[in-house]
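A protein record in our archive is deliberately plain, so that people and models can read it alike. The tokens are whole numbers drawn from a learned vocabulary of local backbone shapes. For reference, a complete record is included directly beneath this paragraph.
>
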Amino acid sequence: MAYLGLTLWTKALKDIDHAICIDANDADILVLRAKLHWKLGLIDKGNTDISRAFKLCPNHPEVLDFERKMWYQSQHLHDLACRHILGRDFAKALDCLNSCINFNAEDPKVLILRASVFRELRDYRAALTDVERASRSFFGKQFGDELDEHMRHVLPTEEHPEISRQRNLILNDMAIMHIQAGDFEAGLTAMNQAIASEIETSSRFEGKAIDYRYYINRGDCYRALGKLQAALADYNTARELQPTDTEIHTRIAMIRYHFGLELFNRAAFDKAEIEFSSAIRHNHKVPAFFIRRGDCFRYMDQSQLAYQDYLVASRLAPDDAEAKVKVSQYAQYGASEGVVAPRHQRRARAPTTKPTSVERAWRGAVQKDKAYKALLNQRPDLASPSKDRIQPLPSTTFEEYCRELRS
């Protein structure tokens, strides 16, 4: 106490530490050391001493007074931080929350709020640290401070949904950051964790739906990695959750268009037409979709349908050179329905343009088909080879024929 009167805080703290070593169950000594810690700026150690004093003597007047002051000050700083967050002033909000945590370092509500501020400031590592602290504090308050780590794994525990939600939002933002940086594997890992947590949380709370944007972001990762079937599955799941979102339909359309191009390059024009039609159903404002489907109709001898698709493409993109050329080639067949373009007109191309591999494959298939039809419709003559060399007998008797031979 003499050192305290002389404001020699460090020496006083050493003596109090020695006193606590002698008797660690004296609440008064713990309260005194807590005040010394606060005086020296050791806020966390001071709060720890007050917590120990509270366990030893819950009705201690100093402890009750501290709890009351701490609650009012913490609530004031929390409200002030909320006002700064609404004003998008996250730096000031962070200062308020830091001070608030100095008063109550294990308040899950304050930790989650600060994690959201860190997320807005793109400090994802600090945000995840606060979320994990909030989770540990939540379980500690739920089961008691003396519950060891082993028992926490044994007992059926359920994390508060707000803690899970904030963690998933952080993982989602981290995935977006990785996607923008081109690190799609890391983005996919983060989205897998977020979606797995969302599925587990939604299974515990009836009526809670998973945010469809998680599936969009994971689908983007799959698409960037070339896993188009997995990307399409995620986009379709997102479409079921949000059927009117145009971004989802656009992504599905692009994948269907890609599938159509692969089939078109393999000369599977009927299957490619189905994929291009699916792309058009999801997004009917892309001229390339109509041009490629028109090409499928052209190779399937459906010139009227091809002309209609080329015409739609030219209306969507009046300056598109390819659409203009193809509309002009098929314009004379647009007036009559069901008219098939002549074969020479269908194959006409600029003399300087080399035939593509698809056109060469299609030409070979047409020639083989011609040979097959000719063999089927014009069967070869299998008559005797001596048919034309042996003349038929004249319409006379056999005796007259013998007399002619003798003469």
Residues 250-344 form a domain with the Serine Threonine Protein Phosphatase 5, Tetratricopeptide repeat fold (CATH 1.25.40.10). The two ends are 167 Å apart (CA to CA). DSSP finds 21 helices and no strands in the chain.
